[in-house]
Structures are given as C-alpha cells and as structure tokens.
Amino acid sequence: MSERVVAISVALLVTLGGACAHPHAGSEIISGAIPPDRVAILPSLDSLLPASVRSDSAAILALVVGAENGEPLPAQVHVGKPSAAFPSESPDGWTVLNPGQLFARRYAPGTYQVTVRVIGFHLAQRKIDLQAGEVDTLLVRMRPAPYRFAP
Fold this sequence. Notes:
The chain is mainly beta. The chain is 12% helix and 34% strand.
C-alpha cells in the first residue's frame, strides 16, 4: 500500500470517526423482526423452553437472510459472553447453518454477544440481554461486502 493511500485512509477514519473501518458496517441484527412469512417455521415456545426450565433459562432464535433480497443464507453463528476480542476463528463455538435453517439455542439468562458471519458479507454483531422464560427472536440482515480483484 502506498503512503498516499495510507494517509487518505487515516484521514477518512479521523474525519468519519472510524465509521468506514467498522468491521460489520451494513449488516444488522434486529430483535423481534422475523418476517411474517417465516413465522410458520418457528418452533413453539414449549419446544424451545419447556415449562420445567423456564424459570432459569432463556433462548435465542435467529434467521439469517440477505438484506437486499430477504433470501436465507448459509451462515456461522457464535454466541458468547461480551468481549472486546473477536470470537476465535476455530470451529469450536461456531454453529454452521444451512440456508433457511434457524439458529435455536437455550442459554442461562444474562448478557451475550451474538456474532454472525457469511462469506462475502459484512460481519453482524450485537449484544443481547436474555431474560428467564423469554425467547429473543433475531433477524440477521447481511449486507454484501465490497471486494476488489488484484490488478
């Protein structure tokens, strides 16, 4: 990278407050926004959180789609305690989803960081607070990441 390109990049970061360098600019995770046409495929509350565990459990249910067309995408989802560090690249802790497959997991109540990645798309990340007996439904809208071929 030339000195001029580096200088321009640094100037843009300072001018825009770092917004252009945000690793998941464009992709988003929205609570409670599963589209009505997809609600029929959602598991029931009883199957995610049986009455016997509702007092000390919560659940996450997520659907990953392309932001431009709403089509389901193959994805990798990681849920962990909030951290400044990016989740490990190791396959451990990542759940692989086929297109249209829902992410559905039970967790202890608390604060978690949800990270979703899809090849060719911006990363999506969000902190969520899970309350006992509740299911947090998440719509993950992935935006394509720009790419350039080397000359």
